[in-house]
Structure formats: structure tokens, C-alpha cells
Write a structure and sequence with these properties.
6 helices, alpha+beta, 12 strands, globular
């Protein structure tokens, strides 16, 4: 097992790690690393493996802006129901993984039940609703595994959006995965009542 050692020396060097090399990091080390590298989207698996996600291309960036924007417009009208978050937000799941969905939402009841310590830098909770948008560099299987991980850790609804195939995989707790082929819109109701995501705008980006 490789353990990272975080230092405060401002003189740092950039180093590239092959994907076959796994770096293991504790939650405390992850928090310090994320604070020192706010421009990177970092994640940590349940086994402690550090994941560095590369910057997205402009197409993925535009699609994600549309997704977050549409969710935010719904949230502004229903803020009393819960809290909405965008892709830079990390959550510590019950299995100790630290994940950053592209968009997410936590019910007001569950969010208010967290202590200040549990909210911390990364809230110790799995969102009720998660969205993952596949980019050109993403493996479909890795995202499908991540969606199953969300469900196993308490998510009630998840969307895996695949612009390459124009498909949306809908994950629900205690249900089979539903695959929607080239949908024009998808609703997150009843979990998010009245919410509808317009996919025509996303597919056209």
C-alpha cells in the first residue's frame, strides 16, 4: 500500500502517475490535498484510492452547466424541500468513499439532521438524488459502478447521462435500472416534485 505524505513546503513539482499506479490516502489527507488543489476534481474510493479527474472538455462543460442550471431553477422554487449542489461538492459516503456527483440534492430532513461536525468540509452523507454526466474520457462501466455505489450508500434516485449514445440510465433504490433511449425530458418526481430536465438542450450542446 502506498501512503501519501502531505507537506507544507510551497515548492512543489508536478508529477504524472500512470493509471495502473494506485495511491492510497486517508480522509484527513484527502481534505488537505483538496484544499491545496481547488482547481482539481478529486475523489477517494472506499478502499482509499485517490482519483484525479481531468478537466472536462467544453462540450461536457456546457452540458453540465445546463443540467446544474435547470436543477438550480427548480431548487430556487422548492428550497424548503432540501439542498442542491454542483460538481465541485464532495460527500463522504457511509462506506468512507468521497464522491463528487456532477449534480446532487439532499432532502431538508436529512440535511438538517446532520451535526455541524458531520457537515464539515465534506458532508458525511450520500445525496438522495445524484447525476453523473459521461464525458469522452469516462468509462461507462466505471460510472455504472459509481451509480450502484450511490444506491448502496443511501441514494434514492440517480441519473447516468450518456451523451455519446443519447441514453439516460435511471437508478432507483430496490429497482432494476431503467434505460431511456434519446429522451426529450425526464422527471425526478416524486422525489423532486415538479422537476423536469430538458434533454433536447443537453443533446444539442
Amino acid at each position: 500500500m502506498v501512503q501519501t505524505s502531505l507537506i507544507s513546503d510551497p515548492k512543489t513539482l508536478a508529477i504524472a502517475f500512470p493509471k495502473t499506479l494506485k495511491l492510497h490516502i486517508t480522509n484527513d489527507q484527502f481534505t488537505k490535498l483538496a484544499a491545496a488543489n481547488r482547481d482539481l476534481q478529486l475523489e477517494r474510493t472506499a478502499k482509499g484510492e485517490l482519483i484525479v479527474n481531468p478537466p472536462t472538455g467544453w462540450e461536457t462543460g456546457k452540458r453540465n452547466r445546463s443540467i446544474v442550471g435547470q436543477l438550480d431553477r427548480w431548487y430556487e422554487k422548492h428550497a424548503e424541500l432540501g439542498e442542491a449542489f454542483e460538481s465541485s461538492t464532495g460527500f463522504i459516503l457511509p462506506n468512507s468513499a468521497i464522491r463528487s456527483p456532477d449534480a446532487s440534492w439532499v432532502s431538508r430532513e436529512r440535511w438538517n439532521a446532520l451535526t455541524p461536525e458531520e457537515k464539515g468540509t465534506f458532508a458525511k452523507i450520500c445525496p438522495d438524488f445524484v447525476v453523473e454526466l459521461r464525458s469522452d474520457s469516462d468509462s461507462l462501466k466505471s460510472l455504472q459502478d459509481k451509480m450502484r455505489e450511490y444506491l448502496e450508500n443511501g441514494a434514492k434516485l440517480g441519473w447516468l447521462i450518456d451523451p455519446q449514445q443519447r441514453k439516460v440510465e435511471v437508478y432507483r433504490s430496490n429497482s432494476e435500472v431503467e434505460v431511456l433511449d434519446n429522451p426529450t425530458e425526464v422527471s425526478a418526481a416524486p422525489l423532486l416534485p415538479g422537476s423536469t430536465l430538458n434533454f433536447q438542450r443537453i443533446w444539442s450542446e
